[in-house]
Amino acid sequence: MGVADLLWNYWAAGGSSIDDRLEAARGGGIVYADKHLVVTRTEAPIGLYFAGEIDVTNSHAVAESLCNAAMDDADIHLDLSGLSFCDISGIRSLVDAAEARQTGRLMLHGLPDLLQTVMNVIGWSDLPNLQICNCRGAR
Amino acid sequence: MSTFPAPSAEKFRHEALLYAGWAEFVAGTVPFIRDGVRAGEPVLVVESVDKIEMLRLALSDDADAVLFADMAEVGANPARIIPAWHDFVSRHGGTGRRLRGIGEPIWKGRSPDELIECQRHESLLNVAFGHGQPWWLLCPYDTEKLDEAVIEEARRSHEFVTEHSHVQTSNIFRGLEASGAPFDVPLPEPGTEIGRMAFGPNDLAAVRAMVARHAQAAGIEARAAELVTALNEVATNSIRHGGGNGTLRVWQEDSALVCEVRDRGRFDRPLVDRERPAPSSSAPRGLWLANQLCDLVQIRSLPDGTVVRLHMRRRPQQHLRVVPEIN
What we know:
The complex is a heterodimer. Helix content of chain A is 37%, strand content 27%.
């Protein structure tokens, strides 16, 4: 990705700092990382790859990552196949992110079985902007 | 002629049926179901597989209009029974439509922990439905198999009691308000504790790792992820609503691995773990989830805080046979 793309994405995103964008490019597309969770960009399809564990201490990373990755209003593909744990606050962040979108859906790929069960059980598996794709991971 | 006059007041009627032996069970349930069916009322019977089979035979053609569900499945964790009744009432209850149900959550094979949670369930039914639309729930109790203390408690949790074909108002019914009072019956101390840790806001990953390790050691690898997921939510509640920290204890019983979280929080919504969460809301979901994933969840409000115990069976549940012997 060149600087021109970064700048374009920066304006398209309407805000995240250019330093964040450059940092993401240097880190091999890493848009968020902490001790338990790493989020990276994916190019085909356009989206994010989550690896590690999401709980109440880092579930804010979902919204942050979407923002930092300069996503536009098309469908965004989230590859969750690298998640070894995701709690209710993590799912809530996905739901909130999906509902905050004007157009375009969040497409969830590679959902671990238990996570899918949990989403069913807590009544969050049937939302218009949140599509669960029964496929292996998107990459 | 029916021995079951329709309830006079337009409200939820929670009635215990005390039966001894097969004949009294049939005499107490079949006319009740038949009257409902013939009045066009939706009827749901949650019983053991054996009793369902027997009722189908006894009801003959009338059985076609009855919904049946296996109590061993629905009530494996007794906290899942109220949501099942809730679904029945909301799906079939239309405006002002009467309904009938039969549910036998207590049988001789229940463990002491399950029994006490079933008794709590019976009380909470009054809270869950006491202010809602009128429907009639009959709860059979086998007086030949169950201890006198269990029958006594049934008289406290049910406003009406039918015994030898006679229905009476129970004079020791605890009433609607007391039915939802904080549950502060102390939990028995565990045998040998095999794990313990104090946790704070940054220790959730360590809490999960500890529970996963013990689940593996207890031979329940297949359900470790479910237990970890449930326990994580309980510990998260401690961090967010229970004073910011808590204590995790783990022990093994013959039949189950038990994990306990204690914190200084207050638990003052008796039905919060059995109310199906509304979609797209910030409503609490953790305890609801724990009840769907674990075999038993025990919640107590004590003067110094809240205790939540999660039980995961180490062996699959044995097939339940709760049919009375034919005399």
